[in-house]
Write a structure and sequence with these properties.
The longest helix is centred in the first third of the chain and has 10 residues, at 20-29. This protein has helices spanning 2-6, 20-29, 48-53, 56-62, 75-84, 110-115, and strands spanning 12-18, 37-41, 44-47, 89-95, 98-104. 36% of the residues lie in helices and 25% in strands.
Length: 121
C-alpha cells in the first residue's frame, strides 16, 4: 500500500522477493536444515535461514534491521497483497527462488509494456 500511495497514475512498483514456496520445496527435497547452504551467490553462501529471515551477514555488518524479512510470499500471496493494495494491473513471474512482480497504478504505458515485455490487454 505504501508503494501505491506514492505512485502517480501509470506509475509502477517492480518487486522482487524470495519465493517461499520454492525455497521450502527445495529445502525438503534436498533434506536441508534451516542453517544449511541453499545456494552460493557472488556474496557467498546463502543459507535457508538467510532466505527466510534476511541475509544475516548484511544485517550483522550494517547493524540495520530493515534488511530483515518481515514476512514471506508465495506468488499467490504476493498477487493477493498487491490486489488488496489497489494495484490495477499486476504481472508476475517465478524462477531462481524468487518472485518478480510489476504492479501498476492505472494502465501501463506503451513504454512500460515494451520495457517489461508485457502482453497487450
Amino acid at each position: 500500500a505504501g508503494f501505491q500511495h506514492v505512485l502517480k497514475e501509470g506509475g509502477f512498483a517492480h518487486i522482487r522477493v524470495p519465493d517461499i514456496n520454492e525455497v521450502m520445496r527445495q529445502t525438503i527435497e534436498q533434506g536441508l536444515d534451516i542453517d544449511d547452504v541453499l545456494y552460493t551467490s557472488p556474496s557467498g553462501p546463502i543459507m535457508v535461514l538467510d532466505v527466510l529471515y534476511g541475509y544475516a551477514t548484511q544485517i550483522e555488518k550494517s547493524g540495520q534491521d530493515f534488511y530483515a524479512h518481515k514476512t514471506g510470499f508465495t506468488q499467490k500471496s504476493l498477487l493477493s497483497a498487491l490486489e488488496r493494495a489497489g494495484f490495477s494491473r499486476v504481472y508476475s513471474t517465478v524462477g531462481n527462488l524468487e518472485i518478480s512482480a510489476v504492479a501498476f497504478k492505472g494502465e501501463p504505458s506503451a513504454a512500460a509494456r515494451v520495457l517489461f515485455n508485457l502482453p497487450d490487454v
